[in-house]
Structures are given as C-alpha cells and as structure tokens.
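#lab-general

N.A. 3:47 PM
ok so I finally got the sequence cleaned up, no stray characters, all 291 residues accounted for. can someone with queue access submit it? mine expired

B.Y. 3:52 PM
send it over

N.A. 3:53 PM
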Amino acid sequence: MNRPLRLQRRRLLQTLAVCGLSVLLPAQACAAPAPALMLAEVYRPGMALEPYWLSEKYDGLRAYWDGQRLLTRGGEVIVAPAWFTAQWPGVPLDGELWAGRGRFEEALSTVRQQVPDEAAWRRIRFMVFDMPAHRGPFTERIAAYHGVVSQIDQPWVRAVKQERVHSHAALMARLDRMVKDGGEGLMLHRGDAPYRGLRSDDLLKVKTHEDAEALVIAHMPGQGRHQGRLGALQVQTREGVRFRLGTGFTDAQREHPPAVGEWVTYRFRGVNGSGVPRFATFLRVRPDAPG
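B.Y. 4:20 PM
back already:
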C-alpha cells in the first residue's frame, strides 16, 4: 500500500474510532461537537480602528483543524484527500477553504463531496487566519500562525496577511479596491483580544452590503412565469424573525431550491420596526449553520 493510501486509510479509521462506528460510513455522517469559533459582528462607522488588524474576507467555507481532522463550523467532518492535511501539526487552526475570488460555488461543491475529487482539491487553499488554542492576544497569534504555516510548508496552506488601517476613509478606500478586484470584503480583528468562541466586536466584517443567514422552513409556490416551481422561501433568522425570500434566484435554483432545513445567506438593507430585513435578496446556500 503506497503512502497516500495508508494516510487515507488511517484518517478513515481515526474518524470511525472517534465516532464509535464499526461499519464504513461516509465521514460526514459523523459530526463532532461544533467547534467554538470566533464569529464576527458588523463594522459600524465611528468605531475606533486603531486596535484592529485588517485582512481580506475570503469567500470560502470556514474550516477548523482540530489537530486531527478538518471540521465545518457546524462540526461535520470534511473529507479532504489524505495529502491535503498530511503532516499538519497537532494544534488547532482556524481558516477558510478557498478556491479564489468569485469561486464560492466551486469551493462549496468540492468540500461537500464525501468522495474527494483530487483535481478539484488541488485548486483549494486553506487560508489560516488564527490559532484558537493560543492563549495570547491576536497580535501575538498572527506571528504564531505564520510560523506554523511556514513549518507546514505546503503551497495550499497559506497564512492570511494582516495590516493596519487608521481611519474610516482609508478603510472604505481599501474596501472599494478589494471589491473592484473581485474580493468579497474585509475583516477587522482586534489586536489585544484573546480567542473567544462567541460573536463579538473582537471580530468585524466590512462589506459593501449587509448580509446574514436564515433557516429555510418552507417553500412557497410560484405564480405566473414561476408557476410549478419555487416562488419564495419562507425563512427564519437566528433571532426567530420569519420572512419570505423571493428574489435573487436563478432559474435552476427555482427548479431545485434549497431544501427545508438548510441555511441560506441573504443580502439586505437594514431592518424595519419588527426586525424584518428590508429588500432581502437570496445570495447562496450556506452549508455551515451559523453560531
């Protein structure tokens, strides 16, 4: 048995052992407890920028290396090829599985497959941006994760670059350049903050629009030219607000809409007095349920 196959077999046996399984099941059928990850609030004009580090917001799928396996934000095991995580350290790493700017759907398709597509995984990068088990503030963790990525020394594992920004005008100019270059947005990470597995202002997302996640709870039938296919999704936010999401879908998505029980991301422009998002538009399926 060659080395890649031995690694794949060992990873499979580790997955089965952790899940207490005695039969061969797809690795994603076994879910670990959801990792306690840092989750972002939204940047608001007027917030002090001096404490923060700035980086690109990668349009991929959040992934957590627990020292042994790659997990989604929801705790599902990601079935990556054995070579992808070979010789990774036994320390947790937080990052994004990314196929490039504007290629979220490709990354999603690759990561969700239970039999990894070797060629597709060659186009995936693991963009490391934090070390959850490191007890120092983020400024110290930057140097730490850069050091670990350097030791891994694999072209598909990259350390996310951090820089400083000191004014709202400079931040907006940086955001405009990023969007024109095909990027999704920016992230602000407070330099003196420890790693805390919750949503807080220690981590902020900076985008040209607001977006959020909601759970699909029903399909509403279409009318007119959408007769016989999806008209709108009935969705519910993390806060329990229900509303209809009826725009932003392609014809293919109306024919095969996101399933009830799946999470979706939508764009919007503020909320009304009852908390319902204004001008909400479907953006994409979100496979990792929000924290």
